[in-house]
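Model the whole thing, not chain by chain.
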Amino acid sequence: MVVQEKARRAARRPARAAPARASILRGTVQVLGELLITAGIILLLFVGWQLWWTNIESDAKQSAVIKEFAQGLGGAVPASPEPDPSAAPVDYGTPAVAAAPGHAGTIGIMYIPRFGPNYTRPIVQGTTGDVLDTLGLGHYANTAMPGAAGNFAVAGHRQTHGAVLDNIHTLVPGDKIYVQTKDGYYIYVFRNNQIVMPSRTDVLEPVPTRPGVTPTESFLTMTSCNPRFGAEERIIAYALLDSWQPASAGPPAEIAAQVAAAVGGN
Amino acid sequence: MYGWIFRHLPGPLWLRILTSLVLIAGALILMVQFLFPWMSGFTAFTDSTIGSASQP
């Protein structure tokens, strides 16, 4: 029957009904196809946005935060880096511990020479999306501040939104991690890293992974996602406070140029 | 669909090309401002925190 129908229709080719129906079908398929192609293009654009554009956006916002922090230092901007060839390291005593700022307030700047000479990232209070997705390293609000006995824990993205901890796996034991606050410079030394499941909140304990133990030292713990383009696990980097120097003593020699570029330029 | 839209845009050819470029740019801005941030909530690799402090 269908064949007959088709044959009859073919025979009456010039008639109006058949081409009209065919063109409706063709139009529907065409619109559907165009919508599918559009969806594909949107998904590709999304990947580009996520992996590339969010970094550019975050870098700009983080630079603005650093600039603002530098202005907050005001006249107390560290004096031009002194060569300081003296051998004996000065002991500045117990490190100053600042009060924690409110949500999204700037705590300071982190410098990690292992991540390159331009690694200058702000540390901001809070670990919610609004902080981590734009402002850089987020400080877990319930953990200690830099210099205090306990655990100064920060989180950062491994990919997208600035990718602040992209190279966390390249840290080598002994690497220096510098934290600059308005009080001075905290020099941490990287000790080890660990890959854990996302539920392991004990890495944020005052003494990491040892709940209930009273801390006598200052730890720095950084958390990021692992593997690099996934989030099945977390990579944790532990560091210990090695020394401290007040802002008046100027920046440590290794990062002097970087500090000058980041906050001394104003 | 896009052909139909293009044919129904007013004005001469150069104006229609210009209008379509503006429309495409507008769609891109809407996507970057609203669609993509919303979509990124469904991808996993932005999650970098531990435990209950985790972002959505």
